[in-house]
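Box S1 | Example of a co-folding query
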Amino acid sequence: MKKITMFCAVLCVCGVAQAAFQWTTGTGANGHYYEVITATELTWDDAKAAAEASTALGLDWTLATITSEEENNFLSNALTADVKYWLGGIQDASTLEWSWVTGEAWSYTNWQYDNGDSEPDNDAPDQYIHLGFSTQGGEYPVGYWADLKPKERAYIVEAVPEPATLALLGLGGLLLRRKK
Ligand SMILES: [Ca+2]
Ligand SMILES: [Ca+2]
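Box S1 (continued) | Returned holo structure for calcium ion
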């Protein structure tokens, strides 16, 4: 948690962000904002919709994508609740190809592999990645991925700041709610 800069989104009137944090230090730091939502568990589709409807910090949010080992470690270290989290990964039901909701390249993966029971097991209707997290270890060790049945779960969202938005935040974010 030391590497996480915490922000209090006091200007957020709706959407998901209540305590977004930014990845600003360490190898691979991308400046993106993230929030881990555990208070309201949603289905993957509803979590995706909630993320994309958010206007928190004046940014465009999506379900989080993990495209490097560093990002995987950063987010794993940010998790505190012993639950499973939706990420923005989805599998094509016919081709079984995986993709990120953002269109980012599908390259880095960190699928769970435990005693010969490997993920993704493509066991329909498992089709959405979750970032496994358990303080107990075992079936879903911290930071490992699995495709999982689309029930209600916690989720992680991500936003890419724009330079203009950062400037506004530097001024206190007072302009974020100005009328269109
Ligand atoms: Ca990402
Ligand atoms: Ca599975």
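Residues 119-121, 123, 126, 146-148 surround calcium ion (ligand 2) (CB under 6 Å). The two ends are 36 Å apart (CA to CA).
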